[in-house]
Prior knowledge:
2 domains; mainly alpha; globular; single chain; 2 strands
Amino acid sequence: MTDPVKVHKEYDQLIDLLLSRGMNVPDRPHAIKKISQVGYYRLSGFWYPCRIPHITPENIRTRLDQVRQGTNFRDVYDLYLFDKNLRLLMMNALERVEVYVRSVIAHEIGKISPLGYLDDTLINPKHLTPRRGGRCSARDEWLTKHSKEIAKSREDCIKWHEGKYEGLPFWVAIEVWDFGLMSKYYAMLKDGHRNGILSRLGIAPGNGAIFQNWLSAMNVLRNRCAHHSRIWNKVNEPKIMPLPNHPYFERLRMNDDAYERMYGMIAVLWLLVKEIGPGSNWVRDVADLIDKKPYLPGCNLTAMGFPNNEGFPRELFDIQ
């Protein structure tokens, strides 16, 4: 039997609830203002790790409503701002990667054929085969989504090319692709074509599946950032895969937890960003932000996949 739906509470009642659960609220008007601006439920995700861990009689791990001693509402809000600034930095790197990879795909495949995105001979045959349950092939599904994006586009360049030429050249059509369409197109390409794209990123041939793993994880992160979701302690979906026998990853010596979390994503993004723009200071900006992360009981850097709670490992990235 389910419980009744939760009862609506006014802002003052929500502050009283936090106080009853052990949270320190030094400035009540400030707390009410921030809850009214951001929302109690959204902020609750930031103090969730502060709640006291509990194991039920059925041996189920959960958390009590009571928070750990020293949990302060202002610190909770500062963690929210930290997460916001982290999202902005991630979007900065993701934009660099997305725009560059789109440009490279358009160039490398476009030189084979201006309409290469419609050419099934470039696609790995496994993606041309209908899937179980009567579902269409991954290729047909992609083409349907691509056609919808072209049809709904109101960009002048799209309309002009459609009216003047028999087809949209690759470098025009790709401008309507989002990260997901780009990622899935790369995934469908034959290995030889994927290797040509990898070479432009300084990645050895044969690592197409790993780069596809990165693109998939970056697409999820991009969607989280675009929807203003909390990211600081979220897991990567999918888990990041390192390049085998690569000196960069060998130097970082990251464990499985690092590849599961933000630290692994930061490492991959920096590998790509510094290849695209060698003069970038992105990782230094990330390190500066990480080192200023507000302290909250239970909200540690290890939850981001870092090896300890002592700050960003600058020496591994050759930054001061």
